[in-house]
Each structure stands twice: as C-alpha cells, then as structure tokens.
C-alpha cells in the first residue's frame, strides 16, 4: 500500500523572521542560502535515521551542475553541501533543520524525502535567495543598515535634472509586493541564455556577477522580448510616457499580464529602477546612481564629438551624445574573477545603449576598476569609463562643404555630481569621488591617459583625424548664460547672455542665438526661439544682454522632460568662433500632501492632495495617481475636474496601511498643461 503524502509545516513565520524575508506576502517558504531553516512533516515512513532528502531545481537537475542535492540526517551542518539535522521527533512527526551551501544556485526548489527503498515523497517547494547577511555569501554586506536600505527598502529616490539644477523624484520599487518574486523568477527563465541552454544557465545562478549581467539584458526589450521597451523620440503613442511611471510593480505586472510582451515605454531611470526591484527581490544589494552630463561614447575613443551649424543649432551628427543625466545601477558583490580590490560596488546598466557580447547588456564593471582606469577588466569598462570621463570636442560643421572646425574642447565637462540616495534618509549623497579622482587634478589626467593607452589611443587626439583642424586656438572673448529669475513651467524664462572681451583691443561680434526644447538626452525636438545681435565690446569690457522667452512661446513646444537648450554661436571678426550653451531644466509647480490624522495598521486614514493652477488659463484632463507599498494595494487613479486660472484643487482619499514603520506615499499629478508633477511623503505607520 502506498504511503500517504506527507503534510509539511514550513514554519513560515519563524523562518521568514530568521531569513529577513518577512516582507514577502507568500504562502510558500522563502529563505536565504547558507542559513538553516526548520520544517516539520508527518506521514513519512520511519525510522528518520534512514531519511534521504532530495533538493532539486531547474529543468534537468544533476549533481554535476549543482542543481540536485541528496543528503541524509547528520549531527552537524555540512561546510560544503546541503545538510539536515534532526531537531525533534514524535510518533507522528519529525522536525528537521535544513542548511544550504553559501554558493547554492538560487531559485525555486522541489524538496522530497525518501525512506529506505521506497520511492521519494514530495514535501513541496520553497524559494532560495541570495543572503547578504551571511559572511560566506558573495553578496555579503557587513553593514546591517546598508542591508536594510539596499535589499529591504521598497522606496527610492532617483535624481534627475541637470548638473546646475539637480531635481529628484520618488520611486516605489515594491520588490516584496504580490507576485513580484514569481515574475522575477520568470524573467530569469525567459532570458536568451536560458533559452539557448537551460541546464547551463540554471547552474550559473549561484553567481551574482552572472545574474547581474543576464538581468541587465532582460530588463530592456532589445534582443529577448524583455520587460521594458525604450523610447527616446518624444512621442509615446500606444504606451505610457516614461516620466509617468511611479513604481516598478505596475510595469512588471503588465509584462506578465500581457503574456510577456515588452511594456511601453521606458527611459534610463525606468530601466534602472526595474533592475533595482528585481535584484533587491533576489537578495543582491542594489541602488540607482545618477550621473550628470553623462557621455554616450559610441565609437570607443573616450571622447564625445558635438556638432553645431553657423546659427548655433546643435546638429544630429555622429553617434556620440551627452545626456543631461543618465541613471544606472550599482550592485554589491565580490569579484572572484578579478581579485579582492575589485569587489564591492559593481556598475550594471540595463538601458540599451551599445551592444556587449552581441546583445544589449552592460556590466558588471567594478567601480574601483573604473576609478583606476583599468578599462580592460570585465565587463564593459571602456563604455562606463567614458560615461564619467570622456573629453568633449565641440565642432562647427558646414553642411555645404562638409568642413568641420574645432571650436573648443573640454576635459572637465563629463561626469558631474554622481548621486544616490543616502542610507536610511531621504537625501542625496555625492559619490563622484568613488568614480574618479578630482576633476582637473594631475591624478585624474594620469588615469585618463592610462585608460587611453590600454585602449590603444596613445596620443591626445584620434590618430586618424587630420591634425591641423584639431589645433585649439585661444578665443578673444568668453561668454556664458546666466539665469535671471525662476525656472518654472508656466513662467517666462529670463536669461542673461554675458560676453566678455579678453583682449586689449575692441572686438565686433555677431551672435546667432537659438533655443530648442529637448529630451533629457539633449536630443532636439522643437525650435522655440531664435535671434541674432551684433555687438561691439570695448577692450576688456563685459556686457550683459537680457533674453526673455515667454511662456506662450515655449508652452506648446516643451517636452515632458521640461528641458531647453540655449546656444549662442559668437562669430568674432578676424577671430575664432566661441560657442556659449546652457541646458536648462524647468521645475513643475508644487503639489502638497497632508496626512489627516494618525496612520495605524489596518485602520483608515485620510490623505489630502492640493494643487494650485499657477497659470492664467484653465487646465483640464487632470489625473492624480497614487501608490505606496504597504499603504494601499496597487495604484489609485483619481480624475479631477478642470481648474480655472489660480484655482486650487483639493482631493481627499483614504489609505488602509497594512504594515507598521516608515512608509512612502507617491503622488503623480498630470493635466493638459503640466505633465507628471511628482512628490512623495513619508508616512509613519504605527501599530
């Protein structure tokens, strides 16, 4: 007679508490590797001394690929493999403590028990994750507060804007919500690596370096029908504008619901935020990093070329570009392939910019290797090094003759104010010094030369380019744009063009000025304004020229990135041209959140969101979107009636918090005149 199926008590609460997995809302056991967990089962044949346990994962489990383990009851925990230690037994049940090795493959396991010669009986399934709390794990993070932030925190702040004017917005990573863990496991099973060779792919899932690279490819849709489809056109029909998302949950759920079709649309911070969610969910400490004035060096020569026509218009020539900001990830793990000094934070980038190994993936690149110019070390060192270090070359290009003339070059332009959220606090931390030595210092130039040498770019300029055009001449005048007044959508934009004569004789200058609305990648979208002036500067004279661009002039042309590039190309008579440019990011008007009363677990609390229309025209199509892990389920969407000029709207809704502690509420308000006004509020929930 066949034995009855054993019934298993997985001790979900106790094991989750021990393994830092209490935040998952799952009926399945979720534990971390290299640490014991306890189960009790009954109905298995006895005696327990003869029990053999079988833990297996993946499509074709085997001992050689470390995806199958068989182990019997022993008196001590094994240092190498899986082990089981008897905790207690009674006539009807047995309690066993099971330990996995520090380098076990992560994923969903099937556990069964065999007694004597009978066939194995299933005890059920459990999920095994990375363990940053365990000193033997490749992702071990000694600082507990950092573990809390980089693995357990579901709220993040992403920095944006530009280096003169850094802005930020909240993001709900939501790695412990609903079905996110299962979606993360299915992302791994849909990668190109898995499709080509499932057995080998699963056997590599013990290695955070391998998974980081695979997941950087899977978060973008290129090559593999991954999670998010990028779109940098400024037109987002058929999908959501990248700046309208407030969290990863909605994106990952949509991907699964659609039968794993890429979600439309993402830009860099969306890719980085989704990758943060997936890696934190699997137990790899991860954070988002924003690099201001970020270079996209397409041809690998560690320099970025920008072209302008005689009117000062920025031309789309060549594949290089400089973005106002770019967001990528850092994940924390050891680099056994490179050596101990290269362990720690590793750069991963899921934004599809350049292929690596034939597909759009990037990293892991050791942050220490980038700082030291060790660009030959795996993976993608030259690309990441250029993002923070490339030199900028500005050219005047004559489309009629094809002639290009160097206006000037700048070695200190790229890689400014590299930023991330502080541990345990909602403020910005600057990590620029962790990526490079002080800009302009001898050490920084030495590292730059070292990197160029390693890439075979010995001399200062590209050896294939004609030399004479690359000689920089000293300009006769200098110029800059100054902001006068506030930079706010809905208000006029007031600037000053400041020109200074550096010489001791008078100079006549013809200035062609343009202003374009751009994307945050500085891609031009619409021309807003142009003007030209002719000025004479007395010896050593400085003059200021006010520029006003009225709100109605730019309102229709502005992109949802709210960025404008202003340029002035100054043609000095009998001298060389001088290019003056500035990228401006406008702020949205403010929105206010008030929590009305005390927030308690499982009790209703009301929240009020207020917005005042700052312009003298009606705004309509107003929508308020609200989300926040442990504060409300999913996303709340509220339609708000049109607002007349200067009218204030006040919207109330209720939350029922499900867990105590500091939680974050994220709000996104949009209407026909203002896109995606974001804010967040910390809500302290008490029991």
From TrEMBL:
Signal peptide range: none
- The source's superkingdom equals Eukaryota
Q: How is the cofactor bound?
A: Binds 1 Ca(2+) ion per subunit.
Kindly identify the residues recorded as the active site.
Answer: 268, 326, 349
> Its Gene Ontology molecular function terms?
metal ion binding; protein-glutamine gamma-glutamyltransferase activity
* Residue stretches making up the Transglutaminase-like domain: 260-352
Q: Which InterPro entries match?
A: Ig-like_fold, Ig_E-set, Papain-like_cys_pep_sf, Transglutaminase, Transglutaminase-like, Transglutaminase-like_sf, Transglutaminase_animal, Transglutaminase_AS
Show the catalytic activity.
Answer: L-glutaminyl-[protein] + L-lysyl-[protein] = [protein]-L-lysyl-N(6)-5-L-glutamyl-[protein] + NH4(+)
Please give the SUPFAM superfamilies that the UniProt record associates with this protein. Cysteine proteinases, E set domains, Transglutaminase, two C-terminal domains
- What UniProt keywords apply to this chain's record, in alphabetical order? Acyltransferase, Calcium, Metal-binding, Transferase
Q: Where does Ca(2+) bind?
A: 389, 391, 439, 444
Report the cofactors.
Answer: Ca(2+)
* E.C. designation(s): 2.3.2.13
Q: Which family does it belong to?
A: Belongs to the transglutaminase superfamily. Transglutaminase family.
According to UniProt, the name of this protein is: protein-glutamine gamma-glutamyltransferase
List the source organism: Prunella himalayana
